[in-house]
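Hi Y.,

Following your request, here is the sequence exactly as I used it, all 876 residues.
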Amino acid sequence: MRAVLVMWLWASVVGATELSNEFSLESPRYGRLLANVRAPRAATGGGVTLLVWGDERRGENSAFYGTGPEIYAARIDAEGNVLDPAGIPLCTAPYGQEAPAVTWDGKQFLVVWQDYRDNRNYAIYGARVSPDGTVTTPPDGFRISAPIPEIDGEWEEAPRVASSGGVSLVVWQRGTRSIYDHDILGARIRDDGTVLDPTPRVLVSASGNQANPTVAGGPDGFLVAWGDGRHQVGETSEWDLYATRVAPSGEVLDAAGIPVSVVASSYQGSPRALFDGTNYQVVWSDGRDPSSYGDFYGGRVSLAGAPLDGTGVRITPASYDYKQGPAIAFDGTQTWVTWRAATGSYDERFYGVRFGKDGVVKDTARVPLFTHSGQKALHDLYFDGTRLRAVWTEYVGSFGLKSGRFETDGTVVDGEGRYLAWGANFQDVPSVASSGGTGLVAWRDQLGEEAASTASIRIQPLNADGQPMGDVRVLPSPTYVVSPKVSAGDGVYLVAWGEGGSSYDVKAQRVRADGTLIDAQPLALATYTLTGPASVASAGNTFFVVWEAAGRRITGVMVREDGSVSSPIQLPRPASTAQTQSQPKVAFNGTHFLVVWANYNGDYDIHAARVSPTGQLVDATPRIISAARSTQYEPDVAAHGDFLVTWSDYRNGGGLPQIRAARVASDGTLKDPDGKVIVADYSMKRFAQPMFDGSGFTVLWQQGSDAFMGLKLVRVSLDGTVLTPAPLDVWPAQDNANPASISLIAPHKAVIVYQRFDSGPGLYVTRVHGRVLSITPEEDKPDAGSGDAGLDSGVDAGTDGGGGDTDGGGDAGTDGGVDAGTDGGTRPDAGTTVDAGTGAPEEPEDSGCGCSSTGAPLWGFLPLALLLRRRRSRTA
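Below is the corresponding structure, written out as C-alpha cells. Let me know if you'd prefer a different format.
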C-alpha cells in the first residue's frame, strides 16, 4: 500500500468543519490499458523503441465538453518488454490531441501531433523524450505551427516527421474551414530542441489540394511526398502522387514538384516514404485497376530528384479484399511493405511482400504475417536492427496497442503479438459503511489482460480514524461485476453487487468487521435485474437490498441475520402500469425502512413507501414526496428519527437543477410539502446524498458539468435549515471526482470515498480515494440520539451517486484540463491483498505511488489559531 506524503498540508474549514488529507487504496497493478488507443507510431534510437499514441483514458473527442484523446508514450526494449507500464503523458491539454508521429533525431525522440486546444482549430505541437523516458520539453509540448486566427481558423493536421543530420523536418497539411484547398507546410527542429522555422515554410502550394504528406530523411536532406489534386475537377477522387526534396537549410529544391505517379482519372494517395541507402522509396494506395479492391504501388526517387519507375510498380498481388495501409520499413537489404486485408467481417489479417532496392517485387504471393482472427488496424512498421516489428490496434473490449515481430524472411516470432500500451488497474464506483467505530469500503477493480479484462469487487476495513487497515480481500465472481454497495449492521456488513452483461444478477456477501467473510459462497438475491443493487440499508443485522427490476419496477429482498433471503418485495406504484420506477434508495430510522425512487409519468416525480423490518409493505400506495412541475430526479434518503429525502429539482427550468430536501416523519407524514432548497446556485448539481452526522445532516453532491464533476457538501439542521455559509469543496471538478459515497464512522466524523482521475506518477488512471470529514457542532453539545438506527443512520453507505458503473474500455472520467492533484509519494502498506475465495495472498504490489492532495478555499475568516487547534493528527 502507498502512504500519502502530502506536498503541502492543509485543512478546509467551514465554520468548524474540516477535511483530512486524502488517502488511497492499494498499490497499482499493471496490465493492458483499459482505454482506446488511436494511431500508434514507433521509432527506435538510444537502445530503446518509443511507442506513441492517442489515448482515450480520459475520454473521446468532445468539443462541447473540452475533452478528447491525449498523447501518451512508452518505451520498450528489443524483446518487447514494457519499460513504462503506466505510460508517459506527453500532452494532457484541454480538447483533443491526435495523430502522433515520432522520429529519433540522434539524441532524443521528437514526437509531434495535431492539437485542438487553440481556438478549437487544429495546430501542430511537439515534445522531446530522452531514451530514459524523461520528457525534456515543457508540459503539454511546444508549438510548431504558427498561431491560428480565431475567425475562419486554419486546420493544421496530419503531421509527419523525419530526421537527417541532426535536423528534423515536421510536415503537415494546412486548410481552412471555408475553402477546400490544402497546402503542405513544414518546420525544422534542431536536435537541441531549437525550432529553426518559427514561421513555418510553405513547401507546396500548387493549384488544387495537396494533402496527406509523408517525409523521409536522407543522407543530406529530405524527401516530402503527398497526394496532389492539381488535376482534379471539383471534389473528385482523381489524386496523383508528387514529391519534392527539401534541403537541411529548409530550401525547397523542386518547387514544381516531382511527378512520382500521375495516372489520369485514377486515385493515388496515402503515401509512405523511406530512404533505402541509395534512393528514396515511396509506396502508396492505388486505384488504377478497377477490377481490384485497391492495391499498393511503389516507386523510387533518386537523390537527384528523378523518378526511376515510371508511374509505379504494382506491389500487392491480386486479391479480393480491402487493403488498409501501407506500413513500410527498410531492413538493411529490402523494404517490407505490409497491409491489413479485410473482408468486411471484422476479421482482419496482416500480410506483406518485399520490394527491392532495384525496384523489383521479391514475392509473387503475399506473405502471411499476423493472420489470427480479430478486429485490427495496422499503423506502423519499423526495423530494430535485427527484426521487423509491426504495430497495430486490436479490439478486446477497447482498441489496445499491440505489436509483434517477424524475421527479415517473413517468419513470425511473436505469434499473435503482445499488448504494449499498459496502464494501472482501474478502481471505481466505491461504497462505504461504518459500524462500531470502524468502517468497510468496497469498490470495483479492473485490470486488462491479453485476451480480456478482469473485474472484481474488493473490500478493505477502515480504522477508527477512517484510514485503510488490514488486508484487501477479493470477493469471488465468475463474470463481469457492477455496482458494489455496502451497508453496516451490528458488527456485520453486507456487500452486494451485480454480475452479468446486459442484465445483472444480484449477489451479496456478509463480512465481519475485520474483513473476513461469513458466507462460504455469495448469496443469490435476484436474477436479470436492470441495475444490480441500487441501495442497501440495515435494521440490526437484517439488510434490505433494493434494485430496479425488469419492467422498471422497484423490487427488493430482506437478507436475514441467518443469511436466508426473503421472497421478492415489490414496491407499490400508481394504478397506471404505464408509469415506471427508477433510482431507488433506502434508509432505516429504527422503526421502518423508507424506500424512495423516481417515478415517471410524462416527467419524473419523487415517490416513497415504507417497509417494515420483517419485509411487509407499510404503505400500499406510494407517498408523493415531490410532484412539482418539470423533473424531480435522483433521490436519496437518510434517517434520524425522521427521514431526510434529497433530490435534483428542475422546477425552475433552465436545465440546471436545485438540490431540494424534505423531511418525512416515521408515520409517513410529509413535513415539507414543497421541499426546502439546499443548494440553489446556477450550476449543474446532481446525485445529492444525505447522511445523519451526529447532530444534523451532511449533504454531499456532485457539481460541475456533464464531463467534469467535483464534490461539494453542506450541513443541514434536523429541521432542514442549511447551516453552512458556503459549500465546502471536497474535490475539484477537473479531476472528475465522482461517483462518491459517505458514511458516519463516529459522531461528527464521516468518511467520504470517491473515484477520480489520478495523475500521480505510475497511475494516470481513475482510482478510488477518500477523505475524513470532522465536524464540531457550534455548541459542542452531545447528540440528542432520538431513534438513531446506528452510526450510519441505516442509510445506504453504498450510494454511487447515480454516476453508474464505468467500463474500463473507455475512460470513466474525462478531463480536458490539467490535473490539479500533486503526487505525494507512498503510504505504509495496509496489508496484502487476499483472494476471498481461497484465502491466499496475491502477489505483493510494489509499484507504489502517491495520492493527490490539493487545496480548497478557506470558507470564512477563521483565525489560524482555530485551524491549528482543530487539526488532529492523521496517519499518513
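The chain is about 0% helix and 50% strand.

Thanks again,
Q.
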